[in-house]
């Protein structure tokens, strides 16, 4: 569940370690996502990360993306290949059209700052319903579309973080979404890159 920073006076630092108690030796975690490639969006993400660099752990390598559905640990007891193939089949059959989103202002969870995503046509809700009808997330109702900027390295005052984020915000950036991906990351690398396993093109 996302913990909004507005409900807390300080941030919560993230430990950079292997959380074995969570993954229990399962190597990969899977998720559906929208990759960010628009140059103006990438520039805004980089500027925001640089502005907060004194508050974030270095070497955050995960590529800019919007998580659509946090599928879960990839094994027979959690998120299975059968569930994934059903979702892929349903997504292809739906023939969904490409759509636009807006990269918006900075905000934060307790553990991580992010850039907000505005979805005026509710396209993300359509995709999430498709995925969750086959295999529901742990708490699908608690969804905030965003792009994570990194993880906090210490406990900081909420007001200081939000003030810094506000200094790099200019105006919303509209971008098109033409493709949905299913990706996985290594569970022992909390800041590591992800690997795309499937790419599903949207209709023109």
UniProtKB/TrEMBL annotation:
InterPro entries: Cyclic_Pdiesterase
Xref: Gene3D superfamilies: Cyclic phosphodiesterase (3.90.1140.10)
Protein name: 2'-5' RNA ligase family protein
Organism for this UniProt entry: Oleispira antarctica RB-8
